[in-house]
What we know:
The chain is an alpha+beta fold and 296 residues long. The chain is built from seven helices and eight strands. The protein has helices at 3-24, 41-78, 82-97, 153-160, 178-187, 230-276, 279-295; strands at 99-108, 111-119, 124-127, 139-140, 164-166, 194-200, 206-216, 223-224.
Amino acid sequence: MPEATVIGTKTLVRIMLAIQAVENGRYKPEMLAGMSSANGEMGQLAVMLDRMAKTVAVRDNQLRLLRRIIPVGVALSAEKDFNRLLETLVVEAQSVTNADAGTLYLLEDDELKFVILRNTSLNLSMGGTSKTPIRFAPIKLHHEDGSENRSNIASYSALTGEQVAIADAYTAAGFDFSGTKTFDQTTKYRSQSFLTAPLKNSDGKVIGILQLINAKHPETGEIIPFLDDDALETLVLLANAALDGYIREASLRQEIAQLKIEIDAKKRENQVREITDTAYFRELKQKATEIRSRKG
């Protein structure tokens, strides 16, 4: 068989395999590497196929985003139990990123307090609806001298409002993972990849931190770094809205309750005043005074 025919057959096979990959959602640009620059009809076909595959990938990603995130958004907006709401945020974030573990902190005063902690491999569920208290000490945003605590990745994210991804906590520079290593030593776990995302209210103020640990490859189960994911980004936005909305609603309920107490107190005060201002009450008071004076 002539060499040109062999090359043409191999090229056609590569294009056919690329087409099948597009259909299965497994296309990668390297499948047509070197062909797009080739002259002739095959080169033009490779360019068109690569362009089409990228368009399909964007569309598929958008559809995937809609399928995964819309139900989550509905669930969050409908949830009225605060503990279950917080737990749902962590569970769905783990699902979207295929993370083995997740932690949610809420910012109170100058501290990040643990409110939800989940670890699939360790079968660990603390906080939320589990009713198991989290004994870990809060993470302070500032040291006693007033300086910012930027050595802890969670407090750093809270202070800066930045999302931080770490491929391996044991080799990463710039952050203190001593607490993580102590936890690993105690539980025989291996915390590796981290994704720490700030949760913000409508004013852009940080109100909490969502931290995910150990992203797993969907096929091999291997621990991998967290990847940029539109689904997670959208989930964080939904979490911001749900958490901020709930906190605002709870604050409003508290203000209404306090106002009711004040109204009731004022009402009682007015009722007492109405009684004490009557001629009958003044007469009783005068008689009581006279009786006390006679006894004296």
